[in-house]
Amino acid sequence: MALNVLMFYLLSAVIVICSVLTITTTRILRAAFYLLCVLVATAGYYFMVNYQFMAGVQLVLYAGGIVVLIIFSILLTSHISHKFAKPEAMRLVMGILVGLSGFALSTIAILKFTFTPSNAPAMKVDMQAIGTQLLGTGKNGYALPFEVISILLLAAMIGAIIIAKKGK
Amino acid sequence: MNILNLLIIIPVLTVIGIVFTKDFKGARVAAAVGMTLQLITAVILVISFFAQRKAGITGEFLFLSDFTWFKTLNIHYSVGVDGIAVWMLLLASIVVFAGIFASWQVEYLAREFFISLILLATGVFGFFISLDLFTMFLFYELAVIPMYLLIGIWGSGPKEYSAMKLTLMLMGGSALLVVGLLGLYFYSSAAGPVTFNLLELSKISFPLAMQRFFFPFLFVGFGILGALFPLHTWSPDGHSSAPTAVSMLHAGVLMKLGGYGCMRVAMFLLPEAAQEMSWIFLILATISIVYGAFGAIWQKDLKYINAYSSVSHCGLVLFALLMMNRTSMNGAVIQMISHGLMTALFFALIGMIYGRTHTRNIDQMGGLMNVIPFLSVAYVIAGLASLGLPGLSGFVAEMTIFIGSFQHPDTFHRVATIIATTSIVVTAVYILRVVGKLLLGQIREKEYLEFPDAKWYERISVVVLILPIAIIGFYPSYLSSTLLDALNPIIERLTAML
Amino acid sequence: MLQGIPITHVLIVSSFMFFTGVCGFIIRRNMITILMSIELILNAVNINLVVFNKYLFPDQLQGHFFALFVVGIAAAEASVAIALIINIYRRLNSISVDKVNEMKY
Amino acid sequence: MNYSLTILILLIPFATFLFNGLVGMKFKPIVSGLIGTIGLGVITLLAYLTAWQYFFVDGMVGGSFPKVIAMSMEWLRLTDALRIQIGILLDPISVMMLVVITTVSFMVHIYSLGYMKGEKGFERFFSFLSLFSFSMLGLVIATNIFQMYIFWELVGVSSFLLIGFYYSKDSAVAASKKAFIVTRFADLGFLIGILLLSYFTQTFDFKVLTGTDQSIFAQTAGVSFLGMSVMTWAALLIFMGGAGKSAMFPLHIWLPDAMEGPTPVSALIHAATMVVAGVFLVARMFPVFYFQAPDALTVISYVGGFTSLFAAAIACTQYDIKRVLAFSTLSQIGYMMLALGVSGYGGHEGVGYMASMFHLFNHAMFKALLFLGAGSIIHAVHSNVMQDMGGLRKYLPITHITFLIACLTIAGVPFLSAFFSKDEILVAAYEHNKLLFAVEFLVAGLTAFYMFRLYFNIFWGKETHYHHTPHESPKTMTIPLMILALGSVFAGYIPFSKLVTSDSMPFESHMDFGIAIPSVLIGLTGILIAWILYKKESKIPERISKSLGGFYQAVYHKFYIDEVYMFITKKIIFNCIARPVAWFDRHIVDGTMNGIGWITVTSSRNIKGMQSGNLPQYGMVFVLSAIILVLIFSFLI
Fold first, then answer.
1. Which chain C residue is nearest to residue A20, measuring alpha carbons?
2. Which residues of chain C does D608 touch, with a Cβ-Cβ cutoff of 8 Å?
3. Looking at CA atoms only, how far is residue C69 from chain A in angstroms?
4. D79 vs B425: CB contact, 8 Å cut-off?
5. D580 to chain B: nearest residue by CA?
6. Domain containing C82 — which CATH number?
7. Residue C16 banded pLDDT, cuts 50, 70, 90
8. Nearest CA in chain D to A106
C-alpha cells in the first residue's frame, strides 16, 4: 500500500472519528478540540491534492481563526467543567435517523454514479496563478466575488461588533 | 373631459386635500366641500344624461370613454352610464353627502376617518361607472377594504369581530365573483379577443353548460353583498358595530352594489341560466324577506332591527329581480334607491340618537319625542317610509314590485309574491314597536330631558335624505319611466330565449 | 493522493462528515455546538468542491476558489454568529436554543 | 259643466296639513286652528256646490246618474295595462261621501277649536286632522282601486297618528299601534285582493270594473282555489280590507281601544267617516261582488249581522261612555254591511244598497253628534266613566238636548232620520233572509236600550258630587252640536232612493209599515226598560248582572276576543315565530358562519405549533423533507 493511500485513510479515520466525537462529547471544550482535529485533517487532504494555498487558508482561517473564536465564546459563555445534559431520546433518535438515512442515500448515489476522471493536464497551482485568477477580470477571473466577499467580511465585522457591543 | 371621470377625481382630490388639513375641523370641512362638489356633479350628470336622452341619443350607455391600462390582459378603464347607473350614482352621492354631515362630530383620528370614508365612496362610484368588469371588481374591492378599517377603528361594541366577519364574508363573495368573472373572461374568446368589457360580453351568447356553471358564482357572489339568505349574517353584526356614516353608506349604497351586480352582471350576461335557476334564488329571496322581517321583531338593539329590516328589504330587491319582468325589475331598482335613502336615514338618526343616549337598547329609551322632536319626527317618517306609506318612496317600490311580480304567469311565482306581501304587516309590527318604545311614552331617564335637538349639520343630513324619499313618493313616474327605458336591454336579453 | 484513491472514497468521507454535522445540528441544543456542526457541514462541502476540482477538472481552479470563498463566508458567519450568541447569553443567561424562541409564531 | 274646482277639495287640506305640520309651530296655536278650519270650511262649501251641481244641475244622463271623471292624471305606470291614476271620480256615492266627510270634518274642526284649546301640540292636531281629511276625501273620490288603496293606507296612518296624539300616555301608544297593525293586517288582504283582481282583469279602474261589460272577467272563469272561485277569493280578500277599517268581527278589536284618541278624533274618524270606509269599499265594488262573487256577499251579510248583535250586547255592559259609543258604532256598521250583503242590484232589488248608504249618511250625523256630545260631557266632568256622572241635565242644557235627540234618532224613533234608513234595512233583510232580519230586529231593541242606559246614567240618575261645578261648553263646541242635531233630525227626509242607488237609477221606495211599526215598538220597549232601570238610582241592574253571572262577565270582557288576540300575537307570533327566527339566525345561520371561522382559527392554531422557533427542529424537517424528495424523485419516478 502506497504511503499516500495510507495517509489518506489515516486522515479519513481522523475525520470520521473526530467529527462523530465533536457532536457526541458532553464537554464543550472537548468538542472544540475535536473540531480542530477535523479541520486540520481536512487541511491534510488539501495538502494531498497539492492545493497548498487552500490548505494554508484552511489552517489559518479555520483551525486558527474560527476555532479560536469558538473557544473564546465558549470561555465567555460556559464553565469549563460544564457538561451537557443528555439530548432527549426522541431528538436523538430522529437526528441519528436523519443522519444515517441521508448518509446512506448519498452513499448509494455516489456509488451508483460513474465518475470519469479528466485526463487533461493538471494546472500548476502556484501563488502566481491563484493571485492572477483571484484578481483577474477576464475569463477565470474572480475579482468580483473577491470584492463581494471582502465587503461581506467588512459588513460581518461591523455587524459582529455592533451586535456584541454591550448595551447602548 | 368626461364627467364620469370627475366622479372619481373629486373624491381622490378630496382625500389629498384632507391629508393636508391640520385638525378634525379642517378635515371635515374639506370632506364636506368635496362631497358637495360630488353631489353637484352627480346632479349635473343626471340632468345632462336625460338631456341627451331627450335629444334622441339612444345608445344604451352614454358618456363612454375608454383607456387601456393593462394591455396584455386586455383590461380597460372603461366607463359609461345608463339610466339605472345615473340614479344609483345620484343615490350614492346623496348618501355620502349626508354621511359626511352625520359624522360631523368625529374627532378621533378624524382625518383618517374621512379619508377612509371617501375612499370607500370612491370605490362605490367607480363600481357604478365601470363597464370593464375587472375594473369594476377592483373598485368593489376598493370599497370593501376601507370598510374594515372604518369598523375596526371607529366602530362600537365588538368591533374587531364584526369588522373581521363583514370583511371576510364579503371577501368570500369576492372569491366567488372572481371565479365567475374569469369564466366570463375566458369564454369571451368565442367572439374575438378575450375581454372584460360588459358591452362586448353582452353581445356574446355563452353556451348553456358554461352559464349553468358560472351563474351561481356570480349571483351568490353579488348576493352576499345583497344580504341573500343565509349569507346575510354579516349585516346585523357589521351594521351594529359600524360608525354611523359607514352604516349609512354600507346599507344605503354598498348593499345596492349586490343587487345592481346581480342584475347587471349575473343576469344580464348569463340570461339563460338566470331563467333556469331563478327558482332556487327566488326561494332564498322570499325567505330573506319574511325571515328578515320576523328577525327584526325580536331585536332590542336599534341597529340590529334596522339591519334585519335591510335584509328583508334587500331580499325584496333580489326577489323582484328574479321575477324578471319589466315591472318587477323596475320595482327592484326603485326599491334599491328607496331603501338606500331610508336606511341611510335610519342609520343617521340612530347614530344621532345614540350620540345622545349612549345606548341603542330600545328597552332603555322612551319618550324621546318630547325632547328631540326633530329627530323623532324624522325617525317616524323613516319608519313610515319603511313600512310602505303612500307618499313616501317605499310604497312606490313595494307596490311596483308586488304588482309586477304578480303579473308573472307562473303560479309558483305568484304564490311567492303573496308570501312576500306578508312582510308589509310584519314590517309594520316592528317599526311601530320601535317607534312606540323609542319615541313615545314616558321619558325613562331624567338626563334625557337635557338632550339638545338636532344641530344644523344633523338637520342637513336628515333633510337631504328625507327630500328625495318624499319626492319619489309623490312623483314617481319620472324615475319609473326612465328606469323602464333603461331596463329594456336587460329585459330583452333575459326574455330572448323564451 | 490521486493514485489508488478512488474519488468515491473521498466523497463518502465528506458525506459522512456532512451528515454528522446535520445530526449534530439536530440533536444538540447548545448554540455553540450547533455552530460547530455547521462548520462541519461547510467543511464537508469544501472537501467536495476541492476534490471534484482535482479529479474531474484539474485544468481549472473553480472548485478551489469556491472553497476559498466558502471559507471566507464561514469566517464571516462564525463571527456574526458568535456575536449573536454572546449577546443572547447576556440577555438570557443561556445559550440553549430551546430558550431562544421569542420570535416563534 | 266641468268640475275642475273639485281638485281643490284635495289640495286645500293637503296644503293646510303641510303648513301646519312644517311651520305651524312658528305661529300662535290659534293660527293653525283657524287655517285648518277655514280651509275645511272652503272645501265643505265646494263639496256642497259639487253635490248640488251633480245631483240637481247636471242631473241624470239617460235615466241614471253618470260616473264623471272630473280629473285624472297618471301617477305611475306599472305595466302597459296597469297604470295607477290619481283622479276624481264623481258618482252618487262619492258625492254623498264628500258631503258627509266635509260636513262632519268641518264640525269637528270647529268643535276642536274649543275642545283642544290649550293642549300641547294644538297645531299638530290640526295638521293631522287636515291630513286625515285629505286622505279620506282622496279615498272616496278614487277613480281606481289602487288610488283607493293609496288613500286607504294614508287614512290608516292618520288614524294612527291621531289615536296616538297623547303620545306620552302608554295606553294611547298601545292603542294606536294596535289600530294600525290590525288594519294593516286587513290591508294585506286588500292588497292581495287587488293583486288577484288586477292580474285577472288587467285594470284597476272602477269604471271598467263596475261597468256593464263583464268580459273583463273572462280570464277568471274556471280558476278556483280551495274550492272557491278566484273572484270569490278576490272579493273576500278585498272585503277583509274593508272589514279591517270598518272594524267588523273579528277585526274589530282596535276600535274600542282607539277611543284613547281625543274625542273629536273619535267623532270624526272612528264614528262618522273612516270606519265606514269598508262599507264604502263594498258599495263601490258592489257590481263586482254581486255579479262575480255572490258567495262573498252572503259572507258579508252574516259578518255584518253577527257584528251588530255582538257589539250591541257588549255595549250594554260597558261603563266608559266612549266605549259604549264605539260598540254602538260597530253595531251600526254591522247594519250597513248586512244591508249591502242582502242587497240585490237594480231598482227595488237594490233597496239594501240604498238603505246602507242612507244609514251611513244618517249614522255619520248622529254618531258624530253623540261623540261630540260625549266630548262635551268629558270636557265638563274630566272623566269618561259613567259612574262619575249623573244628573248633568241641569249643568249642560244644550248638550243634554242634542244628546237626547241623537239617542232618540239612533233608537229609531219615528220621523227622525235613522227611523227611515233602519226601516229600509230591515225591509231589505226581511226580503232576503229571515234569520238576519230577526237578528237585526233584536239589535234594534238592544240599541235603544243601551243608548238610553247611557243617557239616563249621564243626565239623570243620582246626583254625583263634582269637584268643580260642571259648566256648559263654549260656543265653538255647542254650535256644531246644534248643527249636527239638525242634521240628525232632518237628514231622513232626503230622498235617497232617488239619488243613491245600486245602479244609479232612481226608484220609488215606500214605508213598509208591517216592519216599521214592530221595529218602532221594540225600540220603545228598549227605551222603557232603560227608563225603569236607570232613570232613578236602583239596585236592579246590579241584580240582573249578578244573576246572569258568567255570561255577563263574558260580555263585559268583550267575549275575551282581545285576550285571544293577545295570546296569538304575544304567545304565538312573538314567542313561537319571531323568537325562534331570531334564535335560529343568531345560532344556526350565524353559527354556521362562525363555525367556519372557528374551524379556520382552530386548525391554524394547531398548525402554528409547527412554527416552534426551534432551530434544530427546522433543520431536521428540512433535511428529512429533502431526503424524502430525493427518494421520490430518484427512485419512485
1. C20
2. 105
3. 7
4. no
5. B295
6. 1.10.287.3510
7. very high
8. D627
Q: According to the model, what pLDDT value does residue D565 have?
A: 74
pLDDT score, position B498: 59
Condensed to tens digits (0 to 9), the pLDDT of residues D238-286 reads: 888 888 888 887 888 888 888 888 888 888 888 878 888 888 888 888 8
Q: Which residues are within 8 A (CB) of D8 and not within 5 positions of it... i.e. 6 or more apart?
A: D42, D43, D46
- Structure confidence at residue A91 (pLDDT): 82
Residue C12 lies in a domain: yes
Does D198 contact B at CB distance below 8 Å?
yes
C25 touches chain D (CB under 8 A): yes
Average pLDDT, integer, range A13-34: 88
Q: How many CB atoms lie within 10 A of CB B472?
A: 24
C18: confidence class by pLDDT, cuts 50, 70, 90? very high
Q: What is the pLDDT of residue C19?
A: 92
Residue B225's nearest CA partner among B183, B259, B264 is B259
Sign of the torsion angle spanned by Cα atoms D278, D281, D283, D286: negative
Cβ burial of A53 (10 Å; 0-12, 13-18, 19+) is middle
All partners of chain B with 3 or more CB pairs under 8 angstroms: D
- Give contacts of D 602-621 with A, CB under 8 A: 616, 620
Whole-angstrom distance, CA of residue D89 vs CA of residue D76:
18
With an 8 Å Cβ cutoff, are C100 and D613 in contact? Answer: yes
Percent of chain C whose predicted confidence (pLDDT) is above 70: 91
Assembly ipTM: 0.73
Give the model confidence (pLDDT) of A69-122 as tens digits.
Answer: 888 888 888 766 666 667 778 888 888 888 898 899 889 888 888 888 777 777
**With an 8 Å Cβ cutoff, are A95 and C23 in contact?**
yes
C-alpha cell read off for D222? 274556471
Looking at residue C12, its pLDDT comes to: 92
DSSP secondary structure string, D540-569?
HHHHHHHHHTHHHHHHHTGGGHHHHHHIII
Q: Which chain A residue has the Cα nearest residue C75?
A: A66
D120 interface with B at CB cutoff 8 Å: no
Q: Which residues of C touch D612 (CB under 8 A)?
A: 101, 104
Of the candidates B272, B273, B276, B287, the one whose C-alpha atom is nearest the C-alpha of residue B318 is: B287
C1 found inside a domain: no
Regarding chains D and A, contact by 3 or more CB pairs under 8 A is answered as yes
Predicted local confidence at residue D464, as pLDDT? 67
- Domains of chain A plus CATH, in order, are 1-104 (1.20.120.1200), 133-168 (no CATH)
Angle at B226 (CA atoms; ends B224, B232), nearest 5 degrees: 55
Q: Residue C61 domain-assigned?
A: yes
Domains in chain C: how many in total?
A: 1
pLDDT for B497: 63
Residue C2 in domain:
no
Domain range for residue C91?
A: 7-104
**Cell 371565479, residue located:** B179
CB contact under 8 A, D150 and B400: no
Contact state of D616 with C104 under an 8 Å Cβ cutoff: no
For chain D, the C-alpha Rg in angstroms (whole number) is 31
- Please judge whether C15 and A106 are an interchain contact, meaning their C-beta atoms are less than 8 angstroms apart: yes
pLDDT in tens, C52-84: 888 888 888 888 888 989 988 888 888 888 888
Could you say which residues of chain B have pLDDT below 50?
none
List, for chain D, all residue ranges whose pLDDT scores fall below the cut of 70: 1-2, 463-467, 537-538, 540-541, 612-613, 637
Residues from chain A that touch C59, judged by Cβ atoms under 8 A, are 118, 120-123
In angstroms, what separates the C-alpha of D610 from chain C's closest C-alpha? 9
Q: Which chains does A contact via 3+ CB–CB distances below 8 A? A: C, D
Q: Tell me whether C100 touches chain D (CB under 8 Å).
A: yes
Start-to-end CA distance of chain B, whole Å, equals 42
